[in-house]
Design goal:
With 213 residues, this protein is α/β, with parallel strands linked by helices. It contains 10 helices and 8 strands. A 6-stranded parallel beta sheet has the order 5-4-3-6-7-8, with helices on both faces. It is globular and about 60 Å long.
Length: 213
């Protein structure tokens, strides 16, 4: 048999390999403990290596068009495009609202104090950062890239899926969440259910059940 991480991967395998015993088993995600002392702030968060396929420039363009100036964008991570992204921020005149803390060890703390997670990737194998954000209770706005976001997000329930490269769509969905705290809370509660679906015991048992006779 063959194990795939996403439904799209399964579909591609079935179309190219003469073996119908294909099962989707995604990566596990840890449960991020909620800390009542940590208050959600007006932060849109992204976590990812600064390379072209992560779509950070599209996110910056979408963020620059948002209606509410009190919000900040925080991008965790580093990479070869960092200097270019800083120049884009300066060109767009949003340097007082966009922050690049670099590679940090306290990602969970950022996930707990942010209010929205934005995921503009053009391509993924399995989007672990998106899964962790959902598990932390963040409503997510994601490009519907190949592959993974559609396995994690039910559009309009725990987040929004936007066509890849649709900057206007990303801005529109972010604006919906920015102006409606009740919507953010409702979607955030649904998002946390991912932690139950992808808990390590359940994923481990899926492997065992697939492999054992």
């Amino acid at each position: 048999g063959i194990i795939a991480q996403t439904e799209l991967a399964k579909k591609l395998i079935l179309s190219s390999i003469p073996n119908s015993n294909v099962k989707v088993i995604p990566n596990p995600v840890k449960k991020i403990k909620q800390d009542r002392r940590t208050e959600r702030e007006n932060i849109i968060l992204n976590v990812g290596r600064m390379i072209e396929t992560k779509g950070h420039e599209d996110l910056l363009l979408a963020f620059s068009k948002l209606k509410l100036p009190i919000w900040k964008l925080v991008i965790l991570g580093d990479g070869p495009l960092r200097n270019h992204l800083v120049s884009v921020v300066n060109r767009l005149g949003i340097d007082d609202k966009v922050f690049f803390p670099g590679v940090v060890k306290n990602v969970d703390e950022w996930l707990l104090k942010a209010s929205i997670f934005a995921f503009p990737s053009y391509s993924e194998g399995f989007p672990n950062a998106l899964a962790e954000a959902l598990a932390a209770g963040l409503p997510c706005v994601s490009f519907n890239c190949d592959a993974g976001p559609a396995d994690l997000i039910t559009d309009g329930l725990n987040g929004y899926l936007v066509d890849v490269g649709d900057i206007g769509g990303m801005t529109n969905r972010l604006n919906k969440l920015l102006v409606d705290s009740n919507l953010r809370a409702k979607m955030g509660q649904k998002a946390m259910l991912v932690a139950d679906v992808l808990n390590k015991e359940r994923i481990a048992n899926s492997f065992l059940n697939f492999c054992l006779p």
